[in-house]
Write the structure tokens for this entry.
Amino acid sequence: MGPASGAELSPNLERTLGDAIMEQGRRDPQYVTEPIINQYLTELGQKLAKHSSVPLHYEVQVFGMRDRTINAFALPGGYIGINTGLMVAAESEAELASVVAHEIAHVAQRHVARGMTQSSESSHIMLASLVGALLAGLAGSADLAMGVATFGQAAAVDRQLGFSRQAEQEADRIGYHMLQGAGFDPNGMAQMFKRLMHSSRLNESPNAYATTHPLSAQRLADVENRIMSTPAQTYTQSTDFWFVQAAAAVLQAQGGSALLSVQQRLQEAVSNQSGAPKAAAYYGLAYAAKQRNDKAAAQQYLQQARQVGVESAALDSLQIDVYWAQGQTEKAWQLAKQAWAKWPNNQAIALDYVEALQKQGLLEQAIPFLEQRIQQWPQAPRFHQLLAQALDKRQQPVEAREAMAQYYILVGALSSAVDQLQQARSLSTDFYQQSKLDVQIRDLRERLERDRLLLERFKG
Ligand SMILES: [Zn+2]
């Protein structure tokens, strides 16, 4: 069969391609694993996507990349990467949301999928080599270094595409309505535009976003016209944004001098700001102190953050960590319980609570708790992994392998999932369990084969 054309890139195949790319992306050292950041970004994306005038074929998943370049990129299948540099450059939640909305609009319009298969000879070649690496991954023969290279390549495909002026205008229009529909101040879009134009003109910070999404006076004028014809209303602004931004600033600072200058900026924010931005700046300082293992300073900053009087799951989560690090077991345990009662929708706090249950030796409570969290967040892989570990400790190796298989399915590592299920099958002594596992193994193998055939067509 010849290479597939753009018209054949169905939403299903696009998701398969995206899953395979992300399987490797999650292992990239720059991939941000902090649940405080990832849950925030994904929920922001999903809130915006609900207001897309063009229906999306899959749920949007937004993740952070530890990279100080001001950039964002969309991968096939609804995966959107946001660099920490962009989170730090935004001066309000609406500014950040405007870029996320713009990226979602590219996804909804299927610009990424089409660009990958139609745009040019060079993106064809890139796609072909990308697919080759992904096929090796499906066969379970790719090593980590190769996986990372593939992910970088996939992100580069997007970066190299450079969207057309028409695609940009469409994405602006759809993005604007998402932003407004989700209750964000649409002025954020114009402000972010000016900020991006300004920073690319001065070249004061690496700004790759402007090269793939060409900025123009016309685009800015369009946004400003839309704002003028939008009646004013009260807008939403979460406190979470500030804490996510502070964590991103610390995470992206690599090396001593970068960390020093971030701390300096956070100190300035502490004196110039009030409310959530001030509490978040203290949080950033505490986060940085914790990273350099200065527990006393971390504790000091956390106390100052609390005196500002802003409540935040991020603050509680870091405080629990610091208590554990200081050996304050009872305080850590009490706060973990209180925090979970207070923030029942926060994944970072749920993870802190599981850790606390395990440290207290309360395995019998940890297992049902994890099972409930899996019901609550079926797409969050980490809870399946923790459940597998807990089941192993309770001498339930078959169920542990099944939980681990679910983890691998969610991160797109289907051949590892098959391995786990086969291990479960050979450990099981129960006939009904064995036949259930046989069905699952067969289904997964069929899915792997389908994916392989789909990808083969793109080898070119
Ligand atoms: Zn764009």
About this structure: The chain has three domains: 6-228, 241-342, 361-460. Residues 102, 106, 163, 168, 171, 213 surround zinc ion (CB under 6 Å).
